[in-house]
Amino acid sequence: MAIKSAIVDGKHGMTMEQFKIWIKTLDVDKNGKISKDELSDAVRGNGGWFAGWKGKRGIRSADSNGDGVIDESEIDMLAAFAQKASGYQNYIIM
């Protein structure tokens, strides 16, 4: 499923709902959870700098049960973290 991004201040962005759909596609091993490595690979694949650090920070911010991965119940927290980190109210900038 392709997710159409919007251009916000010259950068690609997506809505919170689009982000939640996209984040589920990062589950490479199909275990229903997003690991730090899967998140870091996504940041790197989108041209992001400091991918390892950002992946670790994203997991730490949303991992409410402390198991080191993001599961279905924690995706909303990861989306909120990404939105806050991007600095935009209605979009998450990639």
From TrEMBL:
Residues 14-49 form the EF-hand domain. Gene3D superfamilies: EF-hand. The keyword Calcium applies. Keywords: Calcium. GO terms for molecular function: calcium ion binding. It holds the Pfam family EF-hand_5. The keyword Calcium applies. This is EF-HAND PAIR PROTEIN. It comes from Salix koriyanagi.
